[in-house]
Amino acid sequence: MTPPASAALPLPFPFAAIAGQPQLRQALLLAAVDPGLGGVLIEGPRGTAKSTAARALAELLTGAPFVTLPLGASLEHLVGTLDLGQALAGHQVKFAPGLLSRAHGGVLYVDEVNLLPDALIDSLLDVAASGVNSVERDGISHRHAARFVLVGTMNPEEGELRPQLLDRFGLCVRLSNIDDAASRQAIVRARLAFDADPQGFRADHADAQGALALALGRARATVADREALPYEDEVHAAVGALCMAAQVDGLRADLVMLRAARALAAWEQADTLTTAHVQQVADLVLLHRRKPGTEESAPTPASSQAGAPRPSSGEGKGASGDHASTSASDDDTDWGAMPPEPVGIERVKPLRPLMAAAPTPKKA
């Protein structure tokens, strides 16, 4: 019996047709302009276009692969393995590539990243930031380029990432359910139209899709030019002020904010990098790094334009929904430590002697 032919992969929903999530679109485009940002962490409930947007982004990068990291993957499955037997026999090192090698030049998508083992997430974030994957086994090593756009999603109701791992993601978006009736209806109609006729729906958005791909390629070329988009000391001052106001740990937030602002300036075809670009990307950089109780940055007028990041209603207020819901003093202790609680003290009655005293023997 002839085996059935493999089914063709479904066509992706066009990125240009994604509506209702401007922050998500902006964050993904910035990460695609500069993959060195360290990827995007998308938090939100089910059905908020997280996986749809990630798949659509890969299509904007010409010939880019879209690779999914399954929850049951091992470390060797992710980074690859070395054939130690051939190396010890005097032959050349034989490397079996992993998912990081396959994702080079494309998009690596990790659904429910908060459910992966910490060691796997740590290795993944290391490579996403450096662009190089190193595999070592018994003193034998192999290195290869692994530059990709990392997109991780999670539902906070199913568990959270440790702060040390959160900080490694460059940008963060916190999605919420669409509560506007007209927007919900428009999104549902678009999805039903795509499901009914994917080819026709994609044809209707082909021009917008082509314009996005062209703009993305141009912005990536600008970012690759180290002499492009110069900036003054006031940009450094704005970045430092925002990060100190958010009470972030370390300097990673400062570096990521500068890179994200430069990616935004490249996308907008600006001549120089300004403080307005910094303000527009600040919330994407600080959302998952901001200490509880600190105020979020005030957006500039430019950040309220269509397609620009807009802060969600619950950011930076220390309310439920923030990653760190404990007090600021808890950050000086080990993560996960519980604060001491008062315990009532009861007066305990003295125990009666278990044995009566032995009588004193009489003298003869």
Give the structure's gist in a few sentences:
A hairpin with a 2-residue loop joins strand 6 and strand 7.
Report on this structure.
There is one protein chain. This protein has helices spanning 22-33, 50-60, 75-79, 84-88, 99-102, 118-130, 163-166, 181-196, 198-204, 206-224, 233-245, 252-267, 275-286; strands at 40-43, 66-68, 81-83, 94-96, 107-110, 132-137, 140-145, 149-154, 171-174. A hairpin with a 2-residue loop joins β6 and β7 (140-145). The longest helix has 19 residues, at 206-224. It starts with 21 loop residues before the first helix and ends in a 78-residue tail after the last helix. Among the domains are: 9-176, P-loop containing nucleotide triphosphate hydrolases (Rossmann fold, 3-Layer(aba) Sandwich), CATH 3.40.50; 229-304, Magnesium chelatase subunit I, C-Terminal domain (Helicase, Ruva Protein, domain 3, Orthogonal Bundle). Residues 298-346 and 353-358 have low confidence and may be disordered. α1 (22-33) runs parallel beside α2 and α8 crosses α9. The strands form three sheets. It has a five-stranded parallel beta sheet. The protein has 364 residues and is α/β, with parallel strands linked by helices.
